[in-house]
Specification:
Blueprint lengths: L1 E2 L4 E2 L4 H19 L16 H34 L19 H13 L3 H18 L11 H11 L3 H15 L6 H16 L1
Antiparallel strand pairs: 1-2
Length: 198
């Protein structure tokens, strides 16, 4: 291919390769189709009707499953509150209480921060924010929810950005195995204070 700007020949380029591939696919498709309406179509391989029908229904089912999954992700946080069933301990018949209060999580954050364990301190602030959402009745806390589900819910509710900071930091620290620093804790602490002011 001749490059006008530099006056040299190029061996190959990505755009040229894509153009060639597109042309080859087009020519292949032309070869499959009849040249005119009067030409015999016996050259074209015919798939059995049951196979075509099966492929059609497979695509319909896949589209329905995909649409259902998208609806579940979108509406899941709303529906979970309506379908929330209190868990009862079979041995005692008592509904378990939350493990920690917001104050207890904040105390744990302070202690961990004083000991230089910024990872645990950030997680405690994250848990305090989730407990606060639960206490305010905005979002029922569930152990099975992922950080992604919490973020989806917060975006739908237009809740303040500090929640996102805490959740995304928690996700990085616990699942990407990033080490927390004093600066990380400071960002989490500032985010939590903004939440308390809101």
């Amino acid at each position: 291919m001749f490059n006008l700007a530099s006056g040299t020949f190029e061996k190959t380029s990505l755009s040229w390769q894509l153009q060639q591939l597109s042309q080859q696919v087009g020519e292949w498709l032309e070869g499959l189709l009849p040249r005119n309406a009067s030409a015999p179509t016996s050259d074209i391989p015919q798939l059995p009707e049951w196979l075509l029908e099966g492929l059609f229904w497979l695509m319909v089912i896949a589209a329905i499953v995909w649409a259902g999954w998208q609806l579940y992700r979108l509406l899941g946080p709303y529906l979970a509150e309506f379908w929330q069933v209190e868990q009862v301990d079979d041995r005692t018949g008592v509904t378990p209480s939350p493990q920690h209060t917001v104050a207890e999580w904040l105390q744990q954050a302070r202690l961990a921060q004083q000991q230089g364990d910024y990872q645990t301190a950030c997680r405690a602030l994250y848990m305090a924010s989730l407990q606060q959402l639960n206490d305010r009745g905005i979002l029922v806390q569930q152990l099975s929810r992922t950080d992604g589900e919490y973020l989806d819910f917060l975006q739908l509710q237009n809740l303040p950005r500090p929640y996102q900071v805490l959740i995304q930091t928690h996700e990085r620290l616990w699942f990407d195995q990033v080490t927390a620093s004093a600066d990380t804790y400071e960002r989490c602490w500032q985010a939590y204070q903004e939440i308390e002011r809101s």
